[in-house]
Amino acid sequence: STVICVFEKDSILIDEDLLANSARSLETLVSVGMKLGVATRKQSEIDLPNLENCVLE
Amino acid sequence: GHASSKGLPDASEEDSSRLSRLKQKLHINRNHHHRQRLRRIFRRSHGNSSGSSGSCLKLVSAEDFAGIALLTLVSAEMKFKDKWLACVSLGEQTYRTEISDQTEKPVWNSEKKLLLERNGPHVARISVFETNRISKNNIVGYCEIDLLEFLTQDSDSDFEVFELFDPSSSDIVVGKISLSCSVEDPIETEKSFARRLLSIVDYNQDGRLSFSEFSDLIKAFGNQVAANKKEELFKAADKNGDGFVSMDELADLLAIQQEKEPLINCCPVCGEILGVSDRLNTVVHLSLCFDEGTGNEAMTGGFLTDKEASYGWMFKLSEWAHFSSYDVGLNFGSSASHILVFDRKTKRLVEELIDGKIVMSMRALYQSKIGLCLMDSGAKEILYKISEKQGRKMNSAESAEDIPKFVEFFKDQIKLDEVKYPLEHFKTFNDFFIRELKPGARPIAFIERDDVAICAADSRLMAFKNLEDSLRFWIKGRKFSIQGLLGKEICPSTFVDGALIIFRLAPQDYHRFHFPVSGIIDQFVNVPGNLYTVNPIAVNSEYCNVFTENKRVISIISTAEFGKVAFVAIGATMVGSITFLKKEGDYVNKGDEFGYFSFGG
């Protein structure tokens, strides 16, 4: 059986060692809980308008 | 070397050259600040390990160490007589000794120089095999040794004895092995490397290089920039100005030059491009490649796993005849029967155990047009029916008898000491198959940080930044697409060009899957389908579209850090039943149990 996780474009920075092995078509033996990657940006930052740039008319 | 451009030095020059030699000695010591640091890392070991060349040292501290360790497998004490061979696996390389005589106390005295780095693989696996002429060689015992720890521990003796454990349960001792390990002095490494290099171009064997010989050497490095600066390099190397470059002077030139601007861009032996990260790494790499063993019983290398190293003449014959090769990466035909994976923990290659007959049937069914026709003429339905039947069988009380056999077959890949309940607890095979682990058996990385995603299952993982990469390196089914994977109900635009991570669970793996991220479960979508195998033999085949045709359940998780994440649980032949422990609207934390796969349709 298999689990496939699909992320939104540019939402995750996957750990380099995992990408490097995959680019050699080599599977990496991992366990639950091992680090997979880091969010590239806080989703909240995207949703909230960037107030600093607003100017009072 | 050839007659130098200058005559032999006269008496007055003799004094000045002696003075310059003295200065040079001081200069070298002052200049090689890193050598003092390395000296602090090393201390002279008592005596010498067996017959090794050069000075052997013990490590005092292992931080940011990089160098050559000399490992010698001396002997073993087993519990019965046989002909024995031993293997050493470190990273992606495996070496083996010769086969001993018929005895219970084999003596090999087999040594190997290994590249050891702090942030590289440093846990060596030593495995001992009993050998057979016709049937395959069997692993009898193994142990794992952290070589950096071994080298830094305080012990007067150069030899250590380690217990060998039964692969099926790591608390049964099956023998002992005696081995030694010491570090080659990095100065010695540089010198022995320079000595090897010098001997290549020292045509008249006078132990030093004239300008023309030196030029040949620089040319051999294939570095055009350096080739244009031969005179300058020669003058820089010839510190005592005697018109020749000695072995010490060459060693210094290579070491210093490699740090400033690399002389050697790629290894002249194996062709590997040499990063300029650390000059010692370059010299170490080159020394190992140039190394032809020290004449002692050097081990035989070139293997990827100890399993490959232990194969007998039959496998070698098949490899020689190109029936099958044993390699990392996309494999087709008979080479697909050896699936190699990289163990992220030990940084070592591991061969996946699959029954030969199953491999043959999968290759016939998934890697050929005939298989494709079979699928269209009813094989799909048969696979589905077999899986449903298997599910009923594995839920019966009798199936519990299969548990010990299953554990034996995957003996060194199932760790019973982390399973929550003892084997007797499980009333059916499926109960064992969806076994829970003891609390804490799987520590969650950065558990307090929701912007760090974790692995969702014990599995063989492939990760790609986008769909194109996944098609290029792994998924060969022609119809694969994000839309195809997620089914019609889910709008794919959110995920187009997103990262794709595939967690493939093998039969012996812990079969519960967990949340890779924290968030809220938006929805579940059931997509009925077939139950093809998810083995790479099918995934890498252009004749089969596993991920867009197999039965699967897609759940969408809304997260604060990653946006939306699609979590697709895909059933496979025999293991087609997918059960979830959470429901729509639940808030979940990364690492929580999400569900499990079990036998059935």
Order of strands, widest sheet of chain A: 2-4
Arithmetic mean of pLDDT of chain B: 81
Please, what is the average pLDDT of chain A?
82
Strand content of chain B: 25-35%
Strand count, sense and barrel status of the largest sheet of chain B are: 7 strands, mixed
The whole-angstrom Rg of chain A is 17 Å
Instruction: Indicate the radius of gyration of chain B in whole angstroms.
Output: 29 Å
Largest interface comes to:
A-B, 40 and 80 residues
Main β-sheet of chain A, in a few words? 2 strands, antiparallel
Structural class of chain A: alpha+beta
Question: So how many helices of chain A?
Answer: 2
- In which range does the helix fraction of chain A lie? 10-25%
**Gross geometry of chain A:** globular
Counting H and I runs of at least 4 residues, what is the number of helices of chain B? 19
Number of strands of chain A: 4
Helicity range of chain B: 25-40%
Q: Unreliable runs of chain B, pLDDT <50, ≥5 residues?
A: 1-11, 18-55
Structural class of chain B: alpha+beta
User: What is the string of SSEs of chain A from the N terminus onward?
Assistant: EEHEEH
Question: What's the overall geometry of chain B?
Answer: globular
